[in-house]
Write a structure and sequence with these properties.
Oligomer: heterodimer
Pfam families (chain B): Steroid_dh, TECR_N
Distance between the termini of chain B: 60 Å
Structural class of chain A: mainly alpha
InterPro entries (chain B): 3-oxo-5_a-steroid_4-DH_C, SRD5A/TECR, TECR-like_N
Order of helices and strands of chain B: EEEEEHHEHHHH
Radius of gyration of chain A: 22 Å
Radius of gyration of chain B: 25 Å
Structural class of chain B: alpha+beta
Family (chain B): Belongs to the steroid 5-alpha reductase family.
Largest interface: A-B, 8 and 12 residues
GO molecular function, one term (chain B): oxidoreductase activity, acting on the CH-CH group of donors
Number of strands of chain B: 6
Number of domains of chain B: 2
Order of helices and strands of chain A: HHHHHHHHH
Number of strands of chain A: 0
Number of helices of chain A: 9
Distance between the termini of chain A: 29 Å
Subcellular location (chain B): Endoplasmic reticulum; Membrane
Amino acid sequence: MASSEEDGTVEEKENNNKKRTKSTLATAWLTFYNIAMTAGWLVLAMAMTRFYIQKGTHKGLYRSIARTLKFFQTFALVEVGHCAIGIVRTSVIVTGVQVCSRIFMVWFITNSIRQIQSEESVILFLVVWTVTEITRYSYYTFKLLNHLPYFIKWARYNLFIVLYPVGVVGELLTIYAALPFVRRSGMYSMRLPNKYNVSFDYYYCLIIVMLSYIPLFPQLYFHMLRQRRRMLHGEVIVEKDD
Amino acid sequence: LSSPAVVFFEVEILDAKTKDKLCFLDKICFLFVSDPQWYPARQSIRLDPKGKSLKDEDVLQHLPVGTTATFYFRDLGAQISWVTVFLTEYTGPLVIYLLFYFRVPFIYPPKYDFTTSKHWVVHLACMCHSFHYVKRLLETLFVHRFSHGTMPLRNIFKNCTYYWGFAAWMAYYINHPLYTPPIYGEQQIRIALIIFLFCQIGNFSIHIALRNLRPPGSKTRKIPYPTKNPFTWIFLLVSCPNYTYELGSWLGFTLMTQCLPVAFFTLVGFIQMTVWAKGKHRSYLKEFRDYPPLRSPILPFIL
């Protein structure tokens, strides 16, 4: 920071100080946030494991962790804010789409359609999400603390290869299982005639959501694969220099 | 008296991405690229690979280059003329709305095929919607003077999906057998119609005023000012009053039909037009030192 000393004017020094405090504040907040989220998903993992060991069945497991899941998954919305104000260098849209799809699953599928809460597919995606999030948040935490153990980096850029498609299967099976209950109850739907002159059928909306996985999933998957190749490619260059 | 000195230039053209030399021209007067696949509309020639494209009117002698110049070529992709895009994207809603209005088979339950609505506001809405798009088509053919000849081909698919999709969505509900007319009845419809017509005339007045700013064939840019037509006096407060009037027309139509999809279409259009208006306002400010300070991009004093 020697050059800023030479710059001289009081205003410039003040601006530089402001920038430094802002980025220290940002780093402190992000570190706290990522530690908290890692802890939250670890708690979820332990609660799920404990339930299964004690009860020997997955029936009722969702209900037992529902509140914790809703809290931590919904809190992830702040990550969109991080991208928007620029303290995290990721696209707002990509983060937005990812967080929204999780919120959609939790609030508009499993939370509102009680009959599917004991489906195996729910446990499938819950396990995937838990492992993925623990890896992801601990990766960010260690990165912010400038001490990234290799196995966390390895996990982050390799586990997704299996976890991502398995998670998608769990989500799709859950939505599919929910369809008959949505149809029968007519939930979230609006029929004509009404004074807004609009109609909405949640059943067909869910079918469109399921179909949208077809173009979206490959794009996100190949994006992750490209990221992985970039990280591995970077490693190779460092080794050569050594 | 000596004859004017002739300046010769040596020019090389490189591909903007790969930096391969595409051609080298020595003693040239104008640029060309030999393969007919790269027709002029899809060529972008620029002084810097990441910079802005040079215009057709730019003269080599007046560019900031020495006697050797390096230009970069970028392929803009398949191009389509603005007129073609506008005609296609506006004819769609006109036709599609009428299909729903006449209740063509396979849209509503068969017993309603080719029937007409019992609500007179539905007939009025059809007339307004159709008038709006006929006006747009005629303006495209006879009024507008386009500064760019072409746009990328993929835009026609994007734009047509937007216009045609929304037209179908709105028309489905307005012309539905179970349509509910506006709560406040005749009063609401009358006010809505007045707003709609006022804004249609306003929008047309602005288009004429903008056309008259620019003599035929020229691409010069001038600041628009209010004329004798009272509908143009809004130029005192707004940079892009054509968008302001367009928003007004659709608000009128929303009020007239009391249909949520129409409100949604109005909102999306407003967001897009605000983005365009802000851009245009910014470029006016950049280009003209004496640009009137009282003007806002699209909504007087607000936006």
